[in-house]
Amino acid sequence: MHQPAFLKPGDRIRIVSPAGKIDAEKVMPAVELLKQEGFEVLLGQHTFDRHFQFAGTDADRLNDFQEALDDPDCRAIICSRGGYGAIRLVDELNFERFRRSPKWLVGFSDITVLHARFQQEGFCSIHGPMTAFYLKDGVQTESYRKLMQMVRGNFSTDTFDAHQLNRGGHAEGELCGGNLSIVYSLLGTALAPDTAGKILFIEDLTEYLYHLDRMMHGLKMAGKLKDLSALLVGSFTEMKDNDSPFGQSVEEIIFEAVRDYDFPVYFDCPSGHIDENMPLLFGGQYSLTAQNGQVILTPKSM
């Protein structure tokens, strides 16, 4: 998997809104922060447009993203937010000029669709925080600082506490996945992930427990779980249950779906719809293990 060049002072970053609409106050502080880092920052023409729930029409959002892909001086594309809408334009994107001047894609949630397209094109991308997550109470977040390290090529080992349902073991492989609802929605399409021999990362937000169960069994029936190197489970935030309860926790639902396999399973990776949204390099090689009550996620040969 190819990696774009890492960022250096003076490089151009473009911020675009390929999915849901967003208010300027959730973007402009990030613009100033990135400028202080020494980067040139350009906003897509339609970043703050509103077309029902979208940040502009499909055509306008497509034009902004395509312009960012084509820009030979742009070194990173940061999405302002997820929401919904990226899938409506992903098939129309043209990567011909991008291949001459590759750049990083940064985002998560609905941006999982675009990560899938980048990996289909043979390029790494960053599952990481978007503009509203760079500051909290006026202070730079840990996820923002880690993102800035990553785009500059400074990769570090991350650790997090082990969960009681973890299935331990050592694993190595390319990291793929993203938002589970999006990964599930891509089954049967050209963008469905090839998970064989890879570490699959999943996270989600405000889904019903029964639907989580449906998605996990859908992945299982599609053959996307059986040959994993490992399953890495991020945050499942504000999950919901019906008045008649499903009867299992998030972790129990996920573990049951992979019970028949023997690859390692690690829960509580601090990445997803949480303040501490640890950036992950999709398409990058990682090793994953546990030691002394800690899970250790290490990038390899970056």
From TrEMBL:
Xref: Gene3D superfamilies: Class I glutamine amidotransferase-like (3.40.50.10740), LD-carboxypeptidase A C-terminal domain-like (3.50.30.60)
Asked whether the keyword Nucleotide-binding is assigned, the reply is: no
Q: Which UniProt keywords apply?
A: Carboxypeptidase, Hydrolase, Protease, Serine protease
- Stored Pfam families: Peptidase_S66 (PF02016), Peptidase_S66C (PF17676)
Q: Where is the LD-carboxypeptidase N-terminal domain?
A: 13-128
Q: Which residues form the LD-carboxypeptidase C-terminal domain?
A: 172-288
Q: Which residues form the active site?
A: S109 (nucleophile), E203 (charge relay system), H273 (charge relay system)
Q: Which family does it belong to?
A: Belongs to the peptidase S66 family.
Q: What is this protein called?
A: Muramoyltetrapeptide carboxypeptidase
Instruction: Please tell me the species this chain comes from.
Output: Mangrovibacterium diazotrophicum
